[in-house]
Amino acid sequence: MPEGPSIVILKEEAAKFVGQVVREVGGNSRQDIQRMAGQRVRAIRSWGKHFLVQFDGFSLRVHFMLFGRYRVDALKENASPRLSLRFDNGELNLYACSVQFIEGELDDVYDWGGDVMADAWDPKQARSKLKLRPEMLAADALLEQDIFAGVGNIIKNEVLWRIRVHPESTIGALPPRKLGELIAQAREYSFDFLAWKKAFVLKKHYQVHTRSTCPRDGHRITWRKQLGEKRRRAFYCDACQALYRGESDVVPAATIERSKPTKKVASKAVGKVAPKKAPGKTGAKKVATVTKARRNPAAGKSSKPAARTSRTAKLATDAPPPRARARDAAGRDHSRR
Fold it and tell me: What is the pLDDT at residue 246?
């Protein structure tokens, strides 16, 4: 997906069409694209990942989705354009993109302070918006276009590596200094991206995105096919990118088990289950006694009740039978007489 800096490059390349009249319109878009025929281009602008062509009373908005491409004064081989605009001084061909129209003035639709590449970029506004979403992951926050318009997946991965923050850290847990670094680097890296892309050396400057080894410490890069609510690819270093998950709590990334979800991480926000202790000697004896009693109920009975039973039986044996007691009683009565 073309990110904000790539759209800025397109805006610069298409700037020559400002003031020109659209002579011919073509393409397979289902929108009423013919309404642009004969219209004069008043401005070429961009907001984040949106490419904007402004006419009188309306504007064309183009989003390149995941696989969109463009050509200025050229055609892409073996591909049908979604939209083609031909002018007296050249042509603009757009492929695999979303085409829509915006009625009215663009200033009434877009907040230019949210575009990381714009002169009107407002970092204080970005901080205020982030504070309203403390539970959001850092990886998701950087991809929120209403906060960081123009930031894409490459910029996200590289910014988090630069500031040493794990992508699953929550915004509310980041210290103020780290939050400030995240906001500042979202813009600074975007301009680095722009310069490298113009020089055709962008991929040479990837530090973590699509890499296998961290250039900072030599550890193996962790790759996740989908991460966070945005479900985008993530590349990060477990050793040098710390996980922030609770207030003033930092979990060194090296302690995180890569194959397990974040819930297993020991932190204030995510508790660690204490292991069960092995029974000691006394405990082992009790367990053995209970087990033996369950297997042989007679073996588990105390010997004291048995002793009482034997004494009772002896007394009962020594006592005279009932008839003898009756004769003795009769004899005593006869002697008295």
Answer: 74
Last residue of a domain, one of 45, 78, 110: 110
| Model pLDDT, residue 251 | 56
**Secondary structure (3-state) at 258:** coil
Tally of CB atoms within 10 A around 13: 16
Beta partners for 103? 58
State the CATH number of the domain containing residue 233.
1.10.8.50
- Angle of helix 123-131 relative to helix 176-198, nearest 10 degrees? 130
The two counts, helices (H) then strands (E), for the chain are 8, 12
Q: Tokens 């996980």 map to which residue?
A: 243
> Over the Cα atoms of the chain, what is R_g?
40
3-state helix/strand/coil string of 273-309: CCCCCCCCHHHHHHHHHHHHHHHCHHHHCCCHHHHHH
Neighbours of 42 (CB within 10 A): 14
Counting as low any pLDDT under 70, the low residues of the chain are 247-337
* Closest to 129 (Cα-Cα) out of 107, 109, 152, 113: 113
Residue 205: which residues within 8 A CB-CB, separation 6 or more? 192, 196
Give pLDDT, residue 66.
Answer: 87
Dmax over Cα atoms in the chain, in whole Å? 159
> pTM of the predicted model, to two decimals?
0.72
User: Domain of 134?
Assistant: 121-264
Count of domains in the chain? 2
